[in-house]
Every structure is written in C-alpha cells, then in structure tokens.
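Complex 541.
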Amino acid sequence: MSASALSGLAALAKQQGSLRQAFAEDPRRASRYRSSACGITLDYSKNLIDEQSWQALQRLAAQSPLNACLQAMLAGDKINNTEQRSVWHMMLRKTDVSGLTLDGEDIGAAINACRAKMTALVTQLHQGEYKGYTGKAITDLIWIGIGGSLLGPQMAVEALTPYHCSPVKLHFAGNIDGAVVSDLVKNLDPATTLVFVASKSFGTEETKQNALAVRQWFTDNGADSSAIAQHFWATSSNIHAAADFGIVADHILPMWDWVGGRYSLWSAIGLPVALMIGNEQFSQLLQGAEAMDQHFINSRFEDNMPLTLALLGIWYINGFGCQAQALLPYSHYLRLLPSYVQQLDMESNGKSVDSNGQPLTEASAPVIWGDAGTNGQHAYHQLLHQSALAVPADFILPLQAAHHLTDHHQRLAAHCFAQTQALMQGKTLQEATDECLAAGMSAEQAAALAPHKVSPGNKPSNTLLLPELSPFYLGALIALYEHKVFCQGVIWGLNSFDQWGVELGKQLSGPIYQALAGGEARALDSSTQALIQAFLQQKKG
Ligand code: F6P
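Predicted structure with 6-O-phosphono-beta-D-fructofuranose bound:
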C-alpha cells in the first residue's frame, strides 16, 4: 500500500464533524452503517465517518492488494515469506477437506486423520474408557502450553462454559512461574491425570520446563517410563523433540508448519475445547469459523465485515493517531477474549518493517486491551469518556443469555448500549449546567461543578451483536477478528504471520539464567548486573 494513501487519511480525519450532529441530521445513519454476517450484526454507525471518508477508506481497500493476497493465501502460497510458510489455518475448519493438497502432501487426509483421533480420544475420556497406569479412569487433564498453544483453548473453554459436558476436569499450565504447576498438582493424582504438552516448536522454554516438572511429579509418585508414555500426549510439529521427551508416536497429534500458533485453535490445539463441550459442539465452533471464512472470501468489499473492522481500525490509527483499541465484551464468559485478541493482533501486526524488510512509514497495530463489561465501567471507562486520549472501542454483546436471570441480562445490555451512546454524544457544558441547576444547586455552584461533568463525546465505537454465545457464533467471531488482522496487515504491507520480535528476549534470558545460576555476568549492562546481584543476594540470605 502506498504510504501516501495512508498518510492522506490524517487530512481527511481533520474534516470529521460531530457524531451527535450526524445522527441528528441523518435518521438513516444507523441502517447506513450496519452490516451482518453469519448471524452477527455490526453497528458501526457510531464511528467518526461520513460518506466522503467512508468512500476514501473503501478506495484504500480497492487499491490495496487485498484480493491478490487472499487468493495467494488460499492457494497455499508461502505468504509468510520470512519463514517460507503457507498460511492455511482456514483449511482446518473446512467441513469438506477432501482433495486438499499442499506441496504434494495430502492435507485433507491428514486433517481428517487428526480430527478422527481427537474425536476418539474425547469419546474415550467422556466414557471413562481411558485408563491410567493403575487401571483407574482418567479424571483430570493438564494442558501445558503458552501463547497460541494456550490462549485460544483457554478463552474458548471459558466462553463456552454453559456447554460443558465433560466428566474429566481440565487444568491449564502456561506461565513458567513455578506457582502454577506446584499449586496445580497439589490436588491431583497422577494415576488419574492425563497430560498434554502443546507446543508447535516443542522448544518453548516455559512449556518444556512445566512439562518436565509434571513428568517429575509422575516419577516421584512411582510412575515408570511406560506409565509416563501412557499418560503423556503432545500436539506439535516437532515430532522428534516430543519423542525425545518420552511421548509415544501414537500420542503425538500434528501441528503443521502452515498453522501459526495464534491461529491454531482450529487444530489439535482445540482439543481442550472439544473435551469440554463435546465433539459435536466443537464441530459447530469450526462451522461458525468456516461460515465467516465464506463471508470474508465471497462478500463485496462494502459488505465485508472483517474488512469494515479493518478499515475503521486503520482510520483511527493512521488518520487520528490512536494508539490503543479497547475490546469490551459485555459477557462474563467472553472475559478472556481481549487477551486472546491481544496476541492475535499485536503479535501479527505489531511490526515496523514491511514484508520486504523496508521501514513502515505509518503506524501499525494498536495496543489491544479490555475486559468484560460492566466491570470496566467502574474502573477505566472514566478515561474513555473524559480523557484527551481517543480509544476506539469494540463492544460485544450476546443478545440471548445462557442463564435464567433475564433482568440481569437486560441491565447488562442497557449498560452496553448506554456506554456506546455516552461515548458518542457526550455531555455539553450547557447540559451539565442545566443538570446541576435541576438538582437544586445555585448558579455559582453549578458553574463550579459543570466543567467537571462535561464529556466531549465524539468517541467512536463499534457494537457487535451475537444472537447467543454458542460454539457457532464464537467460531464466527474469532474468525472475524482473524480476518480483520489479515486485512490490516495487507493494507499496511507487512507480514502478519511471523513474530521475530519475541526472539531477542528469549535469547538474552539464556546468559542471564546462567548468571543467576552463579555464572559469569560481566558482559551485561550495569542495570541488569545489579538486578542479578539483588536476586543472588536474596538467594544467599
Ligand atoms: O514466543 C512466541 C510464540 O512463538 C508464539 O507465537 C506462540 O504462540 C508461542 O510462542 C508458543 O509457541 P509453541 O507452540 O511453539 O510452544
């Protein structure tokens, strides 16, 4: 994408008027800026756009290589050019994968074989047929992984809590903070615990160390190598490393190099979800994502929901200079969605060079943050309403609740809609003054307090409505954000599928770990040396 097309957005942004006025002048604004896909409705009318700016954003998309890049992705071209990898996570949610081949490999057969294995394992676990080394049925499953090998299943399992039907309890272990594993195993029995080591690379330090600690717990409890083989599974593309760890070939589910970690929920990384909601509902999750894929692939640009979200994001980042984006699901069950989208968006597009290694002249991904509403209303929404920072927000609401407290749900929805309205319309000084006078204040008191009550308004938001938080709509929602991130990456001209920036910290932690273990620390800067000394002092004392 030419830098001038993006930099032209700033001039256009300056011309945007008041949203409150736009609504007053155009009674059709809500229907004009509204779209639907796979049952999900997007109201984007509370954005700082008018016909001119919206057309300019559409032109930006039309001039970008979006269509060509999408076709290249679908064709299996190695669009992750720095790692020479195809990007085929969409294939993992296709209902019919027969005949799919990549580089001469029968991918359709491989996907089907993996699905069949997952289904069989879930069925065995549900029916109590999977027995541990003492002959007792498995009661608990520990899922060890981090980043894309953890956040997706953790978020989806939480989101689909009302669908849980598993007799086997699920536990996640991600952080290398030893508190995680040591607390976890306190209440578990190795004889009835199955362990999954989820790591595409099988080289991630946190996952390896946690897996070793859990394996040691087995050994300490009398398990021999055949018991460990019976209880340990992996999902990885590094079969040799998994085998070296002691995991038998039959217990290694594939993770292909054409699936990025943060896009891997649809692979065997989704096993915890299948376990908790059952095989049929897991298929629904895949079908929801597949439905969104079809919408994304086949819709015209102007009706394309992922592209609409992408263009609005670009508008705020490159037109208005916004550096943050709030994600506010009004759903307790969706409370982990912001963390999941954080990795999806920030690890994909948080880059400073384009796919040819040339510096980007315009900013890319925003800081994604958020939590479930209404909690944030009593914490950080103050900043959204009154600070000088502009933070566009996505509000997400399932229309139907999965519980019987209907009045609670109505109140939740009222707050969700009220927040978007308050951000959009704000409160003028006159309104604030009138409010104070109506409350019985003197003119002097009203003049003193009113400025504090003013909300500038004109703060943009999207509202996404899901019919309900079912596996199908969750799948569609996740795919929506995946495709949004893809569109933005294409328009910014960067590679959304590598993550070289995470490597430096990993490299540097090696020598520091050695120094903390008593090794040489002299080559390190003085601050880092002092931190190491503080750690060593504490250890000695
Ligand atoms: O360090 C970043 C990262 O590579 C992520 O991209 C990935 O999701 C995560 O680590 C876990 O990687 P793996 O599945 O190889 O253990």
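The pocket of 6-O-phosphono-beta-D-fructofuranose is lined by residues 146-149, 199-201, 204, 207, 261-262, 347, 499, 502 (CB under 6 Å).
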